[in-house]
Amino acid sequence: MTTDFTMGYRNHTFKLLSVGLILTTLLSGCGKGTDSTADLTLLRVWAHAGQERERTVLQQQVARFNRANPDTKIQLTLIPEGSYNAQIQAAAVAGELPDLIELDGPFLSAYAWQGHLQPLDDLLDNALVADLLPSIIAQGSYADRLWAVGVFDSGLGLYADRSKLNQAKLRIPSLQQPWSLQEFETALEQLAIADPDGQVLDLKLNYAGEWYTYGLSPLLQSAGGDLIDRDHLRSADGTLNGSESKAILTRVQNWITNNLIDPNIDDAAFTSRRVPLALGGHWNYQQYRASLGDELILLPLPDFGSGSKTGMGSWCWAITDTARNPRAAAQFIAFLLTTEEVLAMTNANSAVPATRSAIDASPLYRAGGPLHLFFEQLDIGHGIPRPRTPAYPIITAEFQKIVDRVRSGSDVTAALNNAVVKIDREITDNRGYPGPGER
Amino acid sequence: MRPGAGSILLRYLLLAGLAIFFIAPLLMMFLGSLKADHRVLLESGSLTAFLPHELSLQNYSDVFRRTDFLRFFFNSLFITGCVVICGLVVNALAAYAFARLQWRGRDLIFNLVLALMILPFEAIAVPLFYGASILGLRDTYAVQILPFIANAFAIYLFYSFFIGIPKELEEAARIDGASTLRIFFSIIAPNAKPVFASVAILTFLTWWGSYLWPTMVTIGPTVRPLPVAIASFYTLPPLQWGDILAFGVMMVSPVLLLFVIFQRWFVAGVASSAMKG
Amino acid sequence: MRLNDQTTSALLLVTPALLGLLLFILLPFATALVLAFTDLRLGSPLAVNFVGTDQFLSLFNDPDFIRALLNNLLFAAVVVPLQTILALALALLLNRGLPGTVAFRTLFFMPVVFPMSLVAVIWSLIYAPGENGMMNAFLQWASFGLWEAKDFLRDPLLAMPAIMLLSIWQGVGFQMVILLAGLQGIPQTLYEAAALDGAGRWRQLLHITLPQLRNPLIFVMLVTTILAFRLFDQVQIMTRGGPENATTTVVYETVQAAFARQQVALASAMTVVFFLLVLSITWLQRRFTHHEREVA
């Protein structure tokens, strides 16, 4: 019986084995990039799948670079924005990162601390670094080294409907003389009187996500509060739940409960001219300009006591520690930072060009250009980088929940304290993020 | 108690009302996929959502232009196909050994296998994700196939069926000297077509729509399956509803077609999942 | 003697399956049990420590996780009875063999073959904010214009019900088919006898149909309850747990911890809690079914 069984089995074993072999070959053969061509430097690049115009420009840039550098071949992979950070973190664990990655600025610290990046200080030309905006350097630095550079920075301001401001006889503020808190609140009330539904300000509460931290944390900083104690980056206690932060968020909550804020459900509060004021970024400009024409003006954020502050930072490029050819990777970054290429990107997405040379050549951003204010406020240091600590992912997640609670009328103090506990615990759990020498 | 005409009418009215609830989203998807992008949302609030007019296939060609649809479709087909086919073989063979062969430790091991049935995939997703990450197995087909081939519930369904096949069929063959595998393939399997169909359909439905695991282990579009592909297409700016719905129609039509043709098997398969519970 | 010889062949037959179950279910689950007592983080350069029950303590002090648990319970408490009743109603309506039954059954079952991710995307369009959204327009029509357009998925009160509704839409066909099979297994003679005794249709439903359907009903409720605790796809695609945690769930929090925040140890602790939940639900169901068997 046994013999018979084995014989019959062998026949089947053979069939099963061959099926298994074919499957294994298929499974292992697919899904892995092939980079066997000799003499050709293959540069694998990951970037986020952003707006269609940005994607197109980036793809064109890669094609141009590949044409200009026949011995280097760039292989671009676009990854959905929603899970981008998580994807890179998970890939980093097994050393599966490509040579060059695009990062959202504030997440950079975590990668640098974990040791997944190479510093760029020695890889980029000094003249090129000197040409970069101070905000680009600030956002790309961690522990006194430069880890990433963006091709563009972001701009945050207050878009306004000029005719409505004039009707309400309001002073048009400037970067030198922004609205004070009192002026700003008076402006809201004055505008509300003339407004059919009384809602006069769009804070883009429909955006959610990173926008909350990017767009609304400058309000805290302008009021003297912040997301975390900036000197030591060890605790949010006393800062995020400090009296200044609490006071300004309570005011924001009052604006909402007093029906001054448009919920912007249709994303058209400003373009349909329902509201005369909208907090917004550079990415809103084209659409706003198309809707309001010459009535569109761009204002700095109000000064709530500690000066007018604004957001900064955007997507930037970093070279991974596993990059086989960091020089070639740096060459691609330098290529993206040539005036021509910076303008190709920023003309498509209206973002702030990262180099002074490109600013001077940009019709939107040079002196007298409609978005020159965005450059100016970054240049004089009104931009506050989102906290440069590996704890940033949790800080922003918690701040987003705070804004949600402020918005729905929950208790501000409780929301802040809750967030502080979580942020501080994360920092303690990571022993305050010791550097390589202190671990 | 024969139901009167009034009661039948009432029953049809109820059915019709419910039918609207079930069919409205489907109709909106099919018709919306044929309309210009800006009209989809604009018309979804009125009955024009359900009126076919000014239709075109533009969205479908846009899907092919904007995404790698065929690749995603192949990925889903390949992954699900491997899981279903390998799963049928592996689980049926194991179930047969549990149901029909005499061996030491059988009952103990079988009970252990049954105990595993209550572990939903969500209870092992984290450690599996951790393992796949540190081993560098993410973004492959293998990581989407291998973990799901062996399945305790499938073994149980096969077992329940095999145990009911008359022993006499096998005895004759065994006396003739047929090997165990030969008996399985020539006698058991042909007599167990319904359970093979049921398990195949249940496995297919589970993994064809699987979303949680592939979101964690696929990175770029290379091995991305359809459920992840539609979710990322949905978040890929600009938001164009016509294209998204066209993607959805193409994603679901082949399965709908299979369902309509083999409806009896689908229904029987689903019903069988409960029979022995 | 012949019987003993079967051990070799049996082992050959079960090895692939057992290997798979061991490697991909048992081993990972055991890993989760161990990891839950450490402070492991994906990608952290710091050494891993055993921290005892710290992760569990912080879980139960975490308002977000508590909210996730409550949301799952709420989802189960609403969806399980609603979906079961609807499935039963559909099954009863279809069981009488009226002309057209097959067409209706096809239609009601159709959403089951739709991947949940696609369902979530379609329903995001149905729930579109503003008066153009289909759900808003429908409610406005049904309330004679009283309904004010809402942003369902961003409204803390409406987001969860919105997700519940589409989940029922997608899943009820599955339950219906199981109950339909159960109904067809009830001997016709029982009804005939009851009709002779003069029992009306309500009494037949209460005294024959429901008791006869007891096991399929319990099974259907068990599956729906477990599905309620596995809730993830819709939440991830439509609301990302928001607004204000209104739709967050245990699995969503787990994936957030493991994948988005790299807190593998914390996520493992959540996994253990999730497993205990599922275990207790299953245990309850077993008790009810066994009870029935003893009686019968």
Description of the structure:
The complex is a heterotrimer of chains A (439), B (277) and C (296). Chain A is an alpha+beta fold and 439 residues long. Chain A folds into two domains: 41-154 and 313-379, D-Maltodextrin-Binding Protein, domain 2; 156-309 and 389-438, Periplasmic binding protein-like II (D-Maltodextrin-Binding Protein, domain 2, 3-Layer(aba) Sandwich). Chain A contains 17 helices and 14 strands. Chain A has helices at 2-29, 52-68, 84-93, 108-114, 126-131, 134-140, 162-167, 181-194, 210-222, 243-257, 285-292, 326-336, 339-349, 356-361, 372-379, 392-407, 412-429; strands at 41-49, 72-80, 100-104, 117-118, 141-142, 145-146, 148-149, 152-153, 156-161, 201-202, 277-281, 296-299, 315-320, 352-353. In chain A, the strands form four sheets. In chain A, strands 1, 2, 3, 4, 7 and 13 form a six-stranded mixed beta sheet that branches. A four-stranded mixed beta sheet of chain A has the order 10-11-9-12. A two-stranded antiparallel sheet of chain A has the order 5-6. In chain A, helix 2 (52-68) runs antiparallel to helix 13 (339-349), helix 9 (210-222) crosses helix 16 (392-407) and helix 16 (392-407) packs antiparallel against helix 17 (412-429). The model of chain A is unreliable at 1-14 and 28-36 (pLDDT under 50). Chain B has 277 residues and is mostly helical. Chain B has helices at residues 5-32, 37-43, 58-66, 69-100, 106-116, 125-134, 142-145, 152-162, 167-175, 180-191, 193-208, 212-217, 226-234, 241-261, 263-275. In chain B, helix 8 packs antiparallel against helix 11, helix 11 packs across helix 15 and helix 13 (226-234) packs antiparallel against helix 14 (241-261). The radius of gyration of chain B is 24 Å and the shape is globular. Chain C is mostly helical and 296 residues long. Chain C has a single domain (55-295), classed as Orthogonal Bundle (MetI-like fold), CATH 1.10.3720. In chain C, 72% of the residues lie in helices and 0% in strands. Chain C contains 13 helices and no strands. The model of chain C has no long low-confidence stretch (mean pLDDT 89). Chains in contact: A-B, A-C, B-C. The A-C interface holds A 1-2, 5, 9, 83, 85-86, 89-90, 92-93, 113-116, 206, 208, 263, 265-266, 393-394, 397, 401, 404-405, 408, 410, 418, 422, 425, 429-431, 434, 436, 439 and C 2, 5, 8-9, 12, 39, 41-47, 58, 62-64, 129-130, 149, 151, 154, 156, 242-245, 259-262. Chain A: Belongs to the bacterial solute-binding protein 1 family. Chain A: GO terms for molecular function: maltose binding. Chain A: InterPro entries: SBP.
